Amino acid sequence: MGEEKKITGRKNVILCILSVLVLCFLLFPLFWTLITSLKTEKEIFQNPPTFYPHVLNTQSYAAQVETGDFNMFRSFANSFLISIGSMLIAVVLAVPASYAIAKYRFRGRKIMLLFFLVTQMLPVSVLLTPMFIMFKGMHVYNTWWSAILADTTIGIPFSILILKNYFASIPKELEEAAYIDGCTRFGAFLRILVPVAKPGIIVCAVFSFLYAWGDLAYGMTFILDQQKRPITAGIFNFMGQYGTKWSYLSAFAIVTIIPVALIFIFMQKYIIAGMTNGAVKG
Amino acid sequence: MHAVKRFFRHENAGLLFALPACIYMLAFVGYPIISNLVLSLQDVTVANLSRGEKHFIGLANYVKLFHDSVFMKSLSNTLIFTISCLVCQFLIGFVLALFLNKNFSFARTVRGLLMIPWMIPMTVTALIFKLLFATDIGVVNYILRSLHLISQNIDWLTSSKTAMLVVIIANVWIGIPFNTILLSTGLTTIPQELYESASIDGASTWQSFWRITLPLLRSTIESVLVLGFIYTFKVYDLVYVMTSGGPVNSTHLLSTYSYKQSFELFNYSMGSAVANVLLLILLMVGIIYLRITMQGEED
Which CATH number fits domain A71-279: 2.40.30.70, 3.30.750.24, 1.20.120.1460, 1.10.3720.10? Predict the structure, then answer.
């Protein structure tokens, strides 16, 4: 398929300027939050508003490091723990399952695939109440485990559906060669197929992490102690208590975005792959 | 023992690899779905949960729902919210995809950066839009005042007339990247030669769009709309953080109302019933998605 001819000259410049304007408009909300987090409370309430902080105020961040009044960094650590835990379980379970669905024609395969597709569509509302009752019974209620276990149910089906396509695209000969060399099924899977599917596995890890990082409903409902809650629930709590403390609130928002921004910078390629493969069958 | 071993030879060995994930999902999703269904047919509240009393009351919860004006309001709100978001994010996303698929220097970078709103936790997005649309210090009110479009600050989120609009705008902001990326991937699969030969035959850009782009993009558009519907219809965090369903229930969606019934009023069974209505509508549209995805999936 032929690439469209590269646009050059004046038309190129106009399109570039136009695209930057669109970008500025769409990302303005983020810019505004960032500068609000660096303003003093007085400047935030100033009219007309200032479009950059006239007095640079890093107090909203520093207060956290010094006193930790609002548990911003503790809840950051909680979120991190929950997201990593959820990511690990999702990847460990999804990788062999997606390999099986891609490479084997076992009994019940199609129903299994359908089940994973349906679970991917489920709203949290359907799972919240029964999970709440179940976790109370399992004695994981009000622990990190409740959020980890619940968040993983989003990561697993997504990962399986993505990885299935990666495994399916690996030629059969590669696996057969491993058998001839004396590998067992599990050995061939671990030593030959998993390394080849590595880009897909990274996509799954990134998305499982992001899903868990963004979750509010599970973390807020299953964990009651503020000391154990994820950062999203921390923000929600803080909003309820100090609804107009915008300098702290926006600092809170920026801290929550940091891991997302880092993932974006270093893993952009994988994010695009995940978004497109997850939705449109490859 | 021998029979078990024979069963797992060859193709059925796959089951062993798939079983752990399957058991996990059956335990933490399959079981809850069933128990949610059962729960909605009982009358479990915080009062009798600890005593373990569970009376079956049949469809009484559902009957009660359809006489509940807040539920009916949530149902229509959910539909209005979903359809408005879907239309706006699709149209804006499509225009952006067409624009960014032109081969100019910044196209790729800008397309990448556009994804950021989609990745941000919805709780944070909710906070950001509360800040932008705040009545006194909100920059939106300031800009509208400077342009002399309004003379007095609008109570965006505290007025039942405008709250839904703001919630929709916030959700469209999240949805645009998703639509742009998928549609723009779809656009790259259309062979460039088609446009070239069409223009040689004297077709205008407009004609090419209707005759080439749209028909060839049909399956992508289908997936984008169906997936968009599924994601939007079940949105919860965003609305819960922005308005908690208020003011005066004007932004209650089925998801937030279900949460309210279960975890604010502690009518667990009523919450389950609301969630099941949400699920039922979702599955009706979801069938289209299942059909698209399962196509060509042999046994």
Answer: 1.10.3720.10
